[in-house]
Write a structure and sequence with these properties.
Blueprint (H helix, E strand, L loop, with lengths): L12 H14 L12 H8 L3 H13 L3 E3 L5 E3 L8 H20 L4 H15 L2 H5 L2
Antiparallel strand pairs: 1-2
Amino acid sequence: MNVKVNRRSKIPYYQQLTQQLLLSIATGSLKKGDHLPSIRQLAAQTNLNLHTVHKSYKELQKKGIITIKPQSRAFIIVDPNKATTISCHQIAMKVEQLLIEAYILGMKKSQLKEIFYDILQKYYTESERDGY
């Protein structure tokens, strides 16, 4: 697994790590049932503190993406191709929160559309976006 942390970013390391792991799942690099490196292994690979990696794993566990078994490694328990009603509702709530924050900050609707479109382009193919 190739995970890199941007040490100059203002985004906390655990959030960067969490985002990269989520991206690996979304792109299919990691699949349901795959084991993640141990906390020690990933900490050594990324040159991060053990607690930072642990916090990232706990965040993924809270989201229902991975499970962590005592005296064992973490592994992925979610299939990104099977969205549940609960996960769709959770995403809708997060999007709404972001839209509220953007509104409070004075962002224009056109700016938001451009941001969302750019992100959709990054992760979805044309056929997926159109529902074909």
